[in-house]
Amino acid sequence: MKLDARIPIGPLAEKWDRGRAEMKLVNPANRRKYTVIVVGTGLAGASAAAALGEQGYQVLAFCFQDTARRAHSIAAQGGINAAKNYQNDGDSIQRLFYDTIKGGDFRAREANVYRLAQVSVQIIDHCVALGVPFAREYGGVLANRSFGGAQVSRTFYARGQTGQQLLLGAYSAMLRQVAAGRVKLFSRHEMLDLVVANGAARGIVVRDLVSGEIESFAADAVCLATGGYSNVFYLSTNAKGCNVTAIWRAYKRGAAMANPCFTQIHPTCIPQAGEHQSKLTLMSESLRNDGRVWVPVRPGDTRRPEQIPEAERDYYLERLYPAFGNLVPRDVASRAAKRQCDEGRGVGPGGRGVYLDFRDAIRRDGRASVEARYGNLFDIYREITGEDAYRTAMRIYPAPHYTMGGLWVDYHLMSTIPGLFVLGEANFSDHGANRLGASALMQGLADGFFILPYTLGHYLATSRLDRVDTTHPEFAEVRRDAERRIARLLAPKGRRTADSFHRELGLLMWNRCGMSRSEKGLTELLQKIPALREEFWKTVVVTGGAERMNQSLERAGRVADFLEFAELMALDALTRRESCGGHFREEFQTADGEALRDDQRFAHVAAWGYTGEDRAPERSLEPIEFETLHLDQRNYK
Amino acid sequence: MDFLLRVWRQKDAASPGKFVEYEAKGIPAQASFLEMLDLVNQRLEEQGEEPIHFEHDCREGICGCCGLTIDGQPHGPGARRGVTTCQLYLRDFRDGQTITVEPFRATAFPVLRDLIVDRSAFDRILIAGGYISVNTGGAPDANAIPVPKERAEEAMDSAACIGCGACVASCRNASAMLFVGAKVSHLGLLPQGQPEREKRVLAMVQAMDREGFGHCTNEGECEAKCPKKISVSNIARLNREYLRARFLAWWNGGAKTEPKGSG
User: Fold this and answer.
1) Which of A111, A483, A627, B192 has its Cα between 20 and 30 A from that of A240?
2) Rounded Cα–Cα distance for residues A563 and B10 (Å)
3) ipTM of the complex as predicted
4) CA A329, CA A436: separation in Å to the nearest integer?
5) Which among A124, A139, A176 has the least Cβ separation from residue B146?
6) How far is B253 from chain A (nearest CA, A)?
7) Is the pTM of this model over 0.90?
8) pLDDT tens digits for A556-604?
9) pLDDT (tens digit, 9 = 90+) per residue, A444-454?
10) What whole-number distance in Å separates Cα of residue A253 and Cα of residue A447?
């Protein structure tokens, strides 16, 4: 497969301006003649639908939730980065760009990241104009906080609900276009497949989750903003509905999947409490601004944290990484926590936890100040664990949170299928092997508000698109596939629920393709996944029928796709024989246990192409080249 | 822990519903309320029976999907301390207790299946005017207009609404005024929301009435059951904003902008 990233020529800082200047435009009067499908209504999808509607395109927006406002962006807590330098602390576009590339362990595309840093500034302006109630100082100007992987304060926030407020902003902008008649909303509709006709993405097949009906929609272009696949681990911080189906179906229709093994394990989550647990809850990384991470010096110390004297505590992040301390990037913090627990110094049930302690912050700034900054997070912690983190240290442990991998896109956010654009977490482009905190919100809104409206217009203006509607034979074909699949899911009438398969898959992935990976584990995984998948299709139980709302069927369809996707993820992890960012191969580490990259052999994006059922996927490479930065081993010490 | 669940089952919007009893035995005490339902559903599915349909997504109290009426209370016993159904843990219940689980009840929220209701009326109210009309691209610098911290905080208090609908379900009139008041307050408190201040409140109230929500009679149940502790002062502000907008419309002779059929 040929991968042409279509990066504009010229110096890095001028690429986006030059690229935009050269892009063709669609005449305003002609835009209404184009229909664009947007799947997913999180930050990327809602902002794309809003911006395209504002320009005059006809937009059809789909989400599986009961309303667009529920998309999982809503749950993002900590903040959104922007190179505003309002704090006069040395921030700049160049620095945000550098921090993001370095945080991503030099596996992200330079031109994309630079552009992201450039438009970050506009995002904040626009969100304030939309009425997003960001935190402010007494003088009325915007407040900032610090986040992991940065030595400046560039994170804008709205208490611990930044994602919610940004999403409500983007959603409100989209609703305004609904009122204007340019966006049509289809909530409770789940995308089942992509329709590619005459070599271009021309529509989707969906299931109306209320009536059960299979429906087809045609368009001139399709945008997927369907989020990440952390739920391949079953237990993650993602919402229960988050799934890989849309991008996996697109992969099977010809879109390349890039770096699927790049997943992020977030260091500050509430540890698992038992077997029954259905999901893990994140505690915002912003807590690491004031909370200090530690474990008891002595393994097996069962005293309550407040009874352990200072001399018997190991503030291991501050000890190991004095320059960044508790604010090292997520992958570094997660692995460090795992190491402490592997050495027997973990705390809480099962010894899988470390302390995040606010004692010193409360002594220094007072309880009221800590409450003002993190009150809602302390409340969440109390509800889940029954413990008061103002009095005792929180217990935290890493959990799957975000996926840097996703569908391959070029600089225009277009996949290897012409007319199929991929935005936000669903694409692979901006975070390399590890995403920095507060950068996901930035990327979602950058893609939707500020990048896609240009690149999509260019595509429409420069493509000769035949008239295709849902009577095209390809639509009938894809629809039949979707119906056959549903019939296959309903057929076995076995005894084992889809959820139980999902749990088993999740545990397999977590143990062998989670925080650390090895050739042995991954090889085993590649044998176990197909076996589990086979068992699934033989013995799964899906109750009810397809002709009305059926959550049993919805769950089973998503699990079936995770069972296929997991194999590609494991294969990618096995093939990438280096450690970088969130991908930690035990065979490749430095003497002190840090990730050891191999820039000679692996400074590339691995993009996998589907070649058919039961055939090995084709692996294509896009080299990662740096014009302005030189490849460096990350050093947070 | 063991429970006896009385659960509302309803095949679809057109069919009548009824309570069905389920024994939930041997549930781990650390489980959440929804994890108990997961376990009950797993057992049902293993026996080839259809699971109890209920809505949920983030399971951390922010998406607003989940919303069950538990023993007559929207979001159950946790609502008074500001938690949603998904954040409810079994430590709030007694071993052996009988628990009644129903959907949110309101004319404007028709039941779609079992415990799932259609809350799209909320979307339609916001489509009528719950936004600031600004196109992407031309915004001034974010710090160009200072917003006093107290005012920004007050706007945030209102903006925290998750649109779950517990306010409607807890109100004897099934009024949506807390939901509408929260959005009108959030945008009306900010300088960016001023240009459309009057138009917004008139349009949203009109849309609210069209959806069949009842009127507010100052019972205050909505605030008591709101998982985000949205204050009823938002309703007072809604009334004031509405009156002000109507007055200004009359004063400016703009009968054209005056909506029909609003109280």
Assistant:
1) A483
2) 32
3) 0.96
4) 6
5) A139
6) 26
7) yes
8) 999 999 999 999 999 999 999 999 999 999 999 998 888 999 999 999 9
9) 999 999 999 99
10) 23
Residues from chain A that touch B192, judged by Cβ atoms under 8 A, are 128-131
B29 interface with A at CB cutoff 8 Å: no
Residue to test with chain A: of B63, B109, B187, most A Cβ within 10 A? B63
Domain formed by A266-400, architecture: Alpha-Beta Complex (3.90)
pLDDT at res. B255? 53
- pLDDT classification of A627: cutoffs 50, 70, 90: confident
Chain B residues with CB under 8 Å of A399 CB are none
Ranges of CATH 1.20.58.100 domains, chain A: 474-623
Residue A441 has pLDDT above 80, yes or no: yes
Tokens matching residue A213 = 């009906």
Predicted confidence at residue B263, as pLDDT, reads 42
Single-letter amino acid, residue B251: W
Q: What is the pLDDT of residue A417?
A: 98
Across the interface, do A164 and B186 touch by the CB < 8 Å criterion?
no
pLDDT tens for residues A48-66?
A: 999 999 999 999 999 999 9
Chain A CB within 8 Å of residue B82 CB: yes
- Cβ of A51 and B51 within 8 Å? no
Integer Cα distance of B107 and A228 in angstroms: 37
Cβ neighbours of B83 in A, within 8 Å: 383
C-alpha dist (Å) from residue A275 to A359, A395, A507, B24, B209: 31, 18, 11, 17, 47
d(CA A213, CA A192): 12
Residue with tokens 């909320």: B122
Residues in B closer than 8 angstroms to A559, CB to CB, are none
Residues B126 and B183: beta-carbon distance below 8 Å: yes
Domains of chain B: 3-113 (3.10.20.30), 120-257 (1.10.1060.10)
**Cβ contact A281–B60 (<8 Å):** yes
Per the CB < 8 A criterion, the answer to whether A572 and A260 are in contact is yes
The helix (run of H) or strand (run of E) holding residue A529 is helix A519-539
What one-letter code names the amino acid at A597?
R
**3 state SS of A238:** coil
User: Mean pLDDT, to the nearest integer, of A503-515?
Assistant: 96
Instruction: Say if CB A573 and CB A259 are below 8 A apart.
Output: no
Q: Using alpha carbons, list the distances in angstroms from residue A532 to A143, A412, A498, A528, A538.
A: 50, 38, 11, 6, 10
DSSP string across chain B: --EEEEEEE-SSTTS--EEEEEEE-S--TT-BHHHHHHHHHHHHHHTTPPPPP---SSSSSSS-----EETTEETGGGGGGT--GGG-BGGGS-TT-EEEEE----TTS-EEETTEE--HHHHHHHHTT-S----TT-PPPTTSS---HHHHHHHHHHHT-----HHHHH-TT-B-HHHHHHHHHHHHHSGGGGGGHHHHHHHHHHHHHHTT-B---S--HHHHH-TT---THHHHHHHHHHHHHHHHHHHTT-GGGPPSS--
A69-102: per-residue pLDDT in tens? 999 999 998 899 999 999 999 999 999 999 999 9
Return d(Cα A447, Cα A40) in angstroms, integer: 13
Q: For strands B98-102 and B3-9, give the pairing.
A: parallel
For CATH 3.90.700.10, the residue range(s) in chain A are: 266-400
Across the 263 residues of chain B, what is the mean pLDDT of every consecutive 10-residue run? 98 96 95 97 97 96 96 90 92 96 97 98 98 96 98 97 98 98 98 98 98 96 96 98 96 64 44
B139, A175: Cβ pair inside 8 Å? no
Task: DSSP letter for A349, please.
Answer: G
For domain A474-623, give the fold: Methane Monooxygenase Hydroxylase; Chain G, domain 1 (1.20.58)
CB contact under 8 A, A552 and B45: yes
- Nearest chain A Cα to B142, which residue? A125
